[in-house]
Amino acid sequence: MGSEANSSEGMEMESNCPSWDSEAEYMAEYQLLGNIDLLVGGYATIALATLGVCANILAISVFCNKSFKSNFNNLLVALAVFDLLFLVVCITESVRRNFEDRSSNTSSFSGLATQIHHRLFPYFLYPLHNILLTCSIFMTISISIERYLAIFHPLVYRNRSYSWNLSCHILPVLGLSVIINAPKFFESEVIYDGENSRISLTEMRFDRNYSVYYQNWTRFLVLGLVPMLLLIFLNVRVFIAIHSRKSSSKEMTYSTILLLIVAIFILCHMPRVALNIYEVFDYEQISECGPPVWSMIFKNFSNDILPALNSTINFFIYFLAGKKFRRSLLNLAFCRNDRQDNILSKTSFRTADTRVAGHAEEAAKKVKEIIEMKKTGVSRSSSII
Q1: Of 219, 189, 176, whose CA–CA distance to 82 is shortest?
Q2: Cβ within 8 Å of residue 66, ≥6 positions away
Q3: Disulfide-capable partner of 187 in 205, 234, 269, 281 (CB 3.0 to 4.6 Å)?
Q4: Per-residue pLDDT reduced to its tens digit, 70-88
């Protein structure tokens, strides 16, 4: 009876997992997964990340001009730096997963380079990849908070110190990102077999409580749901306030750029959050049967190419929405100096000031003449009396 019960339980467990009609169908699905992995997670991600690296370098070069000095632009520089570093790590990770051997051998130069990559991966590249992604998410929230303060608390915004951006916007982002991703330093390790090496997961990564409470729930809430809700709340309020009052063209430009950044951010990160929701609520099935093929295919888009697209596209937002950014970028491309434009604007202000000053002097002279005429009239009348 016991053996029959065990066999029936085994049949129930097997029935819970999806099955293939034939081995050919199984091989076809995993061959499709391998091809999408190579095309999307490999070639497409590397090409897009390379474009993004160049674009963010250009954005940083433009925003570092003196004419762009403002709190908002300084935060955009910080976001571009985080995106730039994230894309560089994306390239190394795509190369490791799609073009490197799983196990390295020091007998050849390529094997030696792979082993160096293996040594850097567990305690540097893998945690750094997650930290930079978190920095990019939190930096977008920080920029939204900056705009919210500028619109709804202008006195607090204007009375801030010079180091406010660093101490209240950038350092908290870095600190929180490191704290949240601290467990990532202990998720993987390098296994050596003589001269060969390979990357393996640690026992902590396979622990059920760790997977459920940190990998699924904590990261879903802290890096998915809460950032999305915060960004929607802050930017909807800023959008309504900007369009319900007469704001300067500068404020309108800043708000337009931020709204576009947030809209693209939500579109690029929503699939990752959706996949995370699926993993949270279907954890038992996944741990028992493994992730389905569709989720692994979907992950190539949600966790690889879309975050890279989000870190790349901000440059094009600045270019399309910012007239001053386009002008400075063209000056940079043609080796022209932005000071010429500034000199022209300053001289125009000076000429306007001299015209106003000239009119003021003429008015003052007329007033003096009128006063003198009145005085002379009074003196004559007194002499007649």
Answers
A1: 176
A2: 338
A3: 205
A4: 888 889 999 999 999 999 9
